[in-house]
Each structure stands twice: as structure tokens, then as C-alpha cells.
Write a structure and sequence with these properties.
The protein is mainly alpha-helical. The protein is built from twelve helices and two strands; from the N terminus they run ββαααααααααααα.
Length: about 260
């Protein structure tokens, strides 16, 4: 797909300042296929992983990851009817016990989530957006809070040096992206924005988790789609935290419902 024009309501067109060729396969996959890495993240986040992984002392079982890769798409929560059954099926296909497979995949998956989210946050804030309660800003706030939640859950926050180490991850992303974007312009208040969001998360996380527990008691541990959206959008609780507290899986159509309401 070649995107060259901006089309107006009256049918007229104007040239876009930046023209885009979208081949639909994902630019990062080209580097992944060319290098033959276990995952595309190893190429996309090379500097960020080199910085982050040693700090959290996380070993990556490449043997399992290389076998797991072709089957990872079957864990799509929007399509898999039974995630636990799917894990068992994958483990049988790659010839490892299911617990060994999960232990090899899930911590590394958490690392990739943090790296993916922090890069999105870097680009979005650098482009002028700010974390907020609504719209795109709400998405920035939610994925940033998800990073904080995962770092705390895995006891990684102290290992990376708390906020100073977290901000360094963004600097590593800049290094990884310099070949495409060039040098990033200075954003003097970037670290302050992240610090303010962290303090807001600390001040609201316990209170909102208590609200969630009260809601679970009221609903007898059966959350509706509206309840999930309330927790995420109004209370700022990441979906995986809601799943953890409620001991229920994230609804397969949750993000579709959020996007279309």
C-alpha cells in the first residue's frame, strides 16, 4: 500500500508531507528473518535488552524459544478457546514439560512487554502526547502503569535501580532507533513526566485495588465487560492486574470492546 495523499471531505486531495509504503509484513520482521533470531524482539530491542536483561538476571532458554516460536501464535487470547490446553499442546509438540516451557517463556515475555510498552511511550510522548484519563493519553497511562506493575510483580524495580534505571531503558530505545530516526531531540521534562505518573500510580494503586476487591465481593467474583472496562479506564488498573486479583482470565474481546465503545 502506497499512501501519498490526504483526502478531504469534498473529494479533493493534497500530497502528504511524509509518504508511506506499507507492505503489510512488519518492518521488524525483515531484520528478524534476515538474522534468524529466536524472536524479532532480539533485533528490535538489541541495546535495550543488553542493558535490561543483565540487571534483572534473566536467562533466556534459546532452545525452547526457537522451538516455541512457530507455535506462539496459537496462544492468541482472541482465538484460543482454552489457553491452558493450548500450552499443553505446544509443550507436547516441542518435546518439553509444560511447566518448563511456561517458566522459560513467561518471564521473558514480561521483559518484552516492558520493552515494547516503553518504546511506545517514548515515541508517543516525544510526538506530543501526555498520559491522561481519556483517549490516546489514557492508553499511554495504562501501558506505563502496566510496566510499573510488572516490574514490581517480578521484583525487578529495585534490581534496575528504580526510576533512574527505568528512565535509562528509554535512552537505550533511542540508541536502537537512531539508525531509522536519527538523534532524538532533547525533551527536558520527559523524566519528570514519567516520575509524576509513577507517583500517581503509587498513590492510587492500593486504593483502586481495594475498589476492585469490593466490586468482586458485590458481583460474587463475576465481572461483566462493563466492570473490566471500569477498572481499566476509570480506575487505571492494568488488565493483567484485574485478572490476577479476580483470578479470572482477561476476556478475549476486551480490547475490541474498549476500542469500539
Amino acid at each position: 500500500m502506497f499512501m501519498q495523499y490526504k483526502t478531504f471531505h469534498d473529494g479533493s486531495r493534497a500530497d502528504l508531507d511524509i509518504k508511506v509504503i506499507d507492505v503489510g509484513i512488519g518492518l521488524e520482521r525483515i531484520a528478524w528473518l534476515y538474522n534468524g533470531s529466536a524472536t524479532s524482539y532480539m533485533d528490535t530491542f538489541a541495546a535495550a535488552i543488553d542493558y535490561f536483561q543483565p540487571l534483572i538476571n534473566l536467562d533466556m532458554n534459546l532452545e525452547i524459544w526457537e522451538k516455541f516460536g512457530p507455535y506462539s501464535c496459537t496462544l492468541d487470547i482472541d482465538e484460543a478457546e482454552d489457553i491452558d490446553k493450548t500450552w499443553v499442546e505446544i509443550a507436547e509438540k516441542i518435546g518439553h514439560p509444560v511447566d518448563e516451557v511456561k517458566n522459560a517463556i513467561q518471564p521473558v515475555k514480561d521483559m518484552y512487554i516492558i520493552l515494547d510498552h516503553t518504546r511506545s511511550i517514548l515515541i508517543t510522548i516525544s510526538d506530543g502526547s501526555l498520559p491522561s484519563n481519556v483517549g490516546g493519553g489514557g492508553n499511554v497511562r495504562n501501558i506505563l502503569r502496566r510496566c510499573f506493575s510488572i516490574l514490581k510483580k517480578n521484583d525487578w524495580w529495585d534490581k534496575i535501580g528504580k526510576m533512574e534505571g527505568f528512565i535509562k531503558i528509554f535512552e537505550m530505545h533511542k540508541k536502537d532507533l537512531e539508525g531509522i530516526y536519527g538523534e532524538f531531540p532533547e525533551y527536558k521534562s520527559f523524566a519528570q513526566i514519567i516520575q509524576v505518573e509513577y507517583e500517581r500510580w503509587l498513590n492510587t494503586d492500593d486504593a483502586q485495588t481495594q475498589n476492585l476487591k469490593k466490586l468482586l465481593q458485590k458481583k460474587k467474583n463475576k465481572l461483566t465487560m462493563d466492570d473490566w472496562i471500569l477498572c481499566i479506564q476509570s480506575w487505571g488498573i492494568p488488565a493483567d492486574k484485574v485478572a490476577e486479583v479476580s483470578k479470572t482470565p482477561v476476556p478475549s474481546n476486551l480490547y475490541y470492546e474498549i476500542a469500539t465503545r
